[in-house]
TrEMBL record:
Protein name: DDE Tnp4 domain-containing protein
Subcellular location per the Swiss-Prot or TrEMBL entry: Nucleus
Cofactor dependency: a divalent metal cation
UniProt-recorded Gene Ontology molecular function terms: hydrolase activity; metal ion binding; nuclease activity
Matching PANTHER family: NUCLEASE HARBI1-LIKE PROTEIN (PTHR22930:SF269), PTHR22930
Family membership: Belongs to the HARBI1 family.
KW Ribosomal protein (keyword) present: no
Keyword set, alphabetical order: Hydrolase, Metal-binding, Nuclease, Nucleus
Record's signal peptide: none
Length: 326
């Protein structure tokens, strides 16, 4: 974050994080409060380490991080991660069609486990299949590596499909509705639904495409070509999570705080990610410029699901298979 962007962010937050001067004490300045929060997010150091660095109390650091993260979300979310509109989906579809060669795609979706300290009296609710405690960050990403929608705080033991179908986004945009009206793929005449693309952690739906199982794809070149096209495009969301974790290194270790504060931290980091991507205008990685061998280990993906899909979902995927094999 450049100094100019820091000052701009500080100006937005001054009314929200300032404290009154009293006869008993002079409050910590707004600039220092913001620096403490950003240092914590950017380094992932413990509250005690941050307290030593700024010569404040450990509990003071915890209070500042929670308050400032909450205000970052409240301030930046309406502008940098607003509720998607029809125009939002149209711009996203245009980007995926022109940059990633996947028409009728309005977003790439994935869920990641964010490691947290074991919550008190939580039993096995937050214990995921990777043998650590976590909350789930479910995100839909546009072609420019910015978060369109996020859902944070689900139990680590839940699956991607279950979290998605219980989210506010699903009830508002999917259940009984459509993202955008159907339209033909380029060079065809039959209308095809607009879709999200995900990995094997999601069930195949008419509005959500997933790759063919590897055992089937190896026996059919048409399915292999579809998987290559879908997985190359789905790397957008994987790259986004990688950028998020490398810039805000709090994600590289378990978040040592209560669950509510961890959720505030994740939401603030996602908003800051969009804020920096918008302001800095970082170039998009093209499919040709990506390194296929670089893993992203900070955030852990979900297990595949074997839920049975409808005939309409299989037919929709077959339309994409036919298009990519023309």
């Amino acid at each position: 974050m450049s100094q100019d962007l820091f000052e701009e962010l500080h100006e937005l937050l001054i009314p929200k994080i300032s404290k009154c001067t009293t006869n008993w004490r002079t409050p910590i300045s707004t600039r220092e409060r913001l620096v403490i929060c950003l240092r914590y997010l950017a380094t992932g150091d413990s509250h005690q380490t941050i307290a030593f660095s700024f010569r404040v109390g450990r509990l003071t650091v915890g209070g500042i991080v929670k308050e400032v993260c909450t205000e970052i979300w409240n301030t930046l979310q309406p502008e940098y991660m607003p509720s998607p509109t029809e125009e939002t989906w149209k711009q996203s579809e245009k980007g995926y069609r022109e940059t990633w060669n996947f028409p009728n795609c309005v977003g790439s979706i994935d869920g990641k486990h964010v490691s947290i300290k074991c919550p008190k009296n939580s039993g096995s609710e937050y214990f995921c299949y990777k043998k650590f405690f976590s909350v789930v960050l479910l995100a839909i990403v546009d072609p420019c590596y910015k978060f369109t929608v996020i859902d944070v705080g689900s139990y680590g033991r839940h699956s991607d499909s279950g979290i998605f179908e219980n989210s506010i986004f699903y009830r508002q945009y999917i259940h009984g509705k459509s993202l955008l009206p159907d339209k033909p793929l380029p060079g065809t005449e039959e209308p095809v639904p607009h879709v999200l693309i995900g990995d094997e952690g999601f069930a195949l739906k008419t509005y959500l495409m997933r790759p063919f199982p590897r055992a089937l794809a190896t026996q059919d070149e048409r399915k292999t070509n579809f998987n290559k096209r879908l997985c190359r495009t789905r790397r957008v969301v994987e790259n986004t999570f990688g950028i998020l974790a490398q810039k805000w290194r709090i994600f590289l270790r378990p978040i040592d705080c209560d669950v509510d504060t961890a959720i505030d931290i994740i939401k603030a980091a996602c908003c800051l990610h969009n804020y920096l991507r918008t302001k800095q205008g970082t170039a998009i990685l093209t499919p040709e410029s990506e390194d296929e061998n670089v893993p992203m280990r900070a955030l852990i993906t979900h297990r595949p699901t074997n839920r049975r899909s409808t005939t309409a979902a299989f037919e929709t995927r077959e339309q994409f298979v036919s298009y990519f094999n023309q």
